[in-house]
Write a structure and sequence with these properties.
single chain, about 400 residues, about 40% helix
């Protein structure tokens, strides 16, 4: 079955969408609603080859943002008659290890998992509900960020915490950015001209959220994000790794409760905490002590995970940068791998500085470990998984 898949990637304050023609591979339409919940919301809708349709408005809720998306299609085209709608769902827990067709039971299960991803699962479901109402009878497919990491071995996903927490409460590492990792690892193999099954890779997805994943033979074997998307690398507003006793310490000395600590680490941590902004572009534009420290902390954490995952894999064919920062910030790429020459890891200054957005190698031609830049395409990955699930060729 060919036809078009509408992909909805509903984030905490934004909606990315794309219409994908599975017969031709073309993208007849795509767009973005951003700053949902703020006074200065914005929609940008691209259809055809002309200039985008833009609308500035306040979108108080994700439902209002999605309603504006439907209006943009009705006003600017193309005709919206998808054979399925693919939804990015951040947390599938241990219940969902592959894409599924959404029914009431699936929705209830995703709602039950919301405490593990309170910023994401509820708004992901907002997209599902609007799409079900807009396209009755059309298959709605959930594609889970956690599903790619279903191959983590027990020694990777098990925390050394009380048995009751693990068995009754389901405390374990799940990992995220799996949809991106699945796409990027396949494309990395294509760039290298090799079979993914024979490759050992480290994928660095660096955006507002950031993660490192060790991939062996196309299978996730370790990843930096854990029970929630807070663990691991330094991110735009998330702290990444901190001492697990921090919450208890803050409760004793400052009276903070668990929700306050969790909110601060997730929304007021990371680059925002160190440099006053969560936008890497703004940090790079400055030359002051705070910005320099933020960059040093950020890239040191990446380098630490690269070394750890290299040791874990035992060998390494390539390091792959993706995500907004990973794809566009040459300085972050170079600084994150600085000093690793003795491990066979090096970045060619000229190749790294080139402004190309194409898939490419940025390591010297004779490097022991290839360093690649591969733009991610989560929307295409979601469309492909949805298409396969509903019986596409």
């Amino acid at each position: 079955m060919a036809g078009r898949i509408l992909v909805l990637n509903t984030g905490s304050s934004s909606i990315k969408y794309e219409l994908v023609d599975m017969g031709t591979g073309e993208r007849p339409a795509r767009g973005l609603v951003e700053r949902i919940g703020e006074e200065s919301g914005r929609l940008e809708h691209h259809a055809g080859g002309g200039p985008p349709y833009e609308r500035a408005a306040r979108f108080a809720t994700h439902e209002e943002g999605l309603a504006a998306v439907m209006e943009a299609f009705a006003r600017e085209g193309p005709r919206l008659d998808p054979v399925a709608v693919g939804h990015r769902i951040v947390h599938g827990g241990d219940r969902f290890t592959e894409a599924v067709v959404i029914d009431d039971g699936v929705i209830a299960a995703i709602e039950e998992l919301a405490p593990l991803a309170p910023l994401h699962n509820p708004v992901n479901l907002a997209g599902v509900r609007v799409a079900r109402a807009a396209f009755p009878g059309v298959a709605q497919v959930a594609v889970f960020d956690t599903a790619f990491h279903r191959t983590l071995p027990p020694e990777a996903y098990t925390y050394a915490v009380p048995r009751d927490w693990r068995e009754r409460l389901g405390v374990r590492r799940f990992g995220f950015h799996g949809t991106s990792c699945a796409y990027v690892s396949r494309r990395a193999a294509a760039v290298l001209g090799r079979d993914l099954a024979e490759l050992d890779l480290i994928v660095l997805h660096l955006g507002n959220g950031a993660s490192a994943t060790a991939i062996s033979g196309g299978r996730s074997v370790d990843t930096s994000m854990g029970l929630t998307p807070l663990e691991g690398l330094v991110m735009g507003t998330r702290s990444g790794d901190v001492d697990p006793a921090l919450g208890g310490y803050l409760a004793r000395v400052d009276g903070m409760d668990a929700r306050q600590v969790e909110d601060a680490l997730g929304h007021a941590g990371g680059l925002l905490a160190l440099a006053g902004t969560g936008d890497m572009r703004e940090v790079r534009a400055r030359d002051d002590e705070e910005a320099r420290l933020a960059l040093a902390v950020y890239t040191r954490r990446i380098r630490k995970y690269v070394g750890a995952y290299y040791a874990l894999l035992g060998r390494l064919d390539a390091i792959v940068f993706t995500g907004g920062v990973g794809e566009h910030d040459a300085a972050t790429r170079a600084e994150s791998l600085a000093g690793l020459d003795r491990l066979g890891i090096a970045v060619d200054q000229e190749l790294n500085a080139a402004g190309s957005r194409a898939e490419r190698a940025i390591s010297p031609p004779d490097a022991q470990v290839a360093v690649l830049v591969v733009p991610t395409d989560e929307e295409w990955e979601i469309a492909c998984q949805a298409h396969t699930l509903i019986g596409g060729a």
